[in-house]
User: Fold this.
Amino acid sequence: MSKRSTTIYWTGFSIILALLIVAPLVLPEFWRRFLTEILIWGLLAMSSDILIGYTGMVSFGHSAFFGLGMYGAAAALLMVKPPNLWLAIVYGLIGSAGIALFVAYFSTRLRDIYFAITTLIFSQIFYVIIFTWTDLTGGENGLTFSRPALGIPGLFSVPFSSETLHWFVLAVVTTSYLILRRITQSPFGMVLQSIRENEGRTRAIGYAVERYKIVAVMLSGLFAGLAGVLYAIQNRFAAPDFVYFLVSGETVIFNVMGGIGTLVGPIVGAAFFLLLRETFSRFFTEFYLIPVGVIFIAMVIFMPQGLLGFMRRWLNQ
Assistant:
């Protein structure tokens, strides 16, 4: 990236970040909450882009990582009194990363559609366990809990208002983006992209491809679990519906709509999809997915590189 491109990039990044910081001060309550939710789903989509866009592995198991991050946070918030925010994050990350490592150990031995189907099967296994283990997970009703305060136990604590929660989520998502951006531009990230382009050649020059894949899945699952923790804190509940494979399908749609292999694209795709769903659900009620599906098909045909790719081509004309 040239010096001029770098300057433009960071200038745009700073402007968007400033707008997101100011947004909760001017938006009404509904849209303030909606914007926070977009950031959380954007983080989930960005985590899956590590696999889809950078490693060339389509995963339908992200609902498991997302949902188990929620349940890990719920477990911490229900067991520890008073509720501890940082412990909830740690529990959620440990749960999602551990499950991601388990899934990766078996699924990364397979390629292409077989990898995708294996991750789908694992997500459904965890869904059935959570749905049926009523004594521990609450079953169909899920778990509800109190929202923890923001602060350091014993020193200070600030109750979460809608503005404070938005800023906290924005800080976590921004930090996650910067970390993932640095990872994708590191030698490790270059190897992942090499696996995507030609796995056989990457293995032939001496890289342990399976190990890189396992780390990629674990890393992706870790940030998906972090998104689950944030969603649990925002909504104060965890339910088995969020472990269902439809969440994974929507995550893939976010990536395709926004532009895979960009990190920013999946966030844009999540925002666009959620805005479409919110808009059409007001006019078409239960049939809102029909116009959303038509728009998605049109985008796949006419904008195969997603919204971000389309904007880049338009700006370069």
Remarks:
- The CA atoms of residues 46 and 195 lie 19 Å apart.
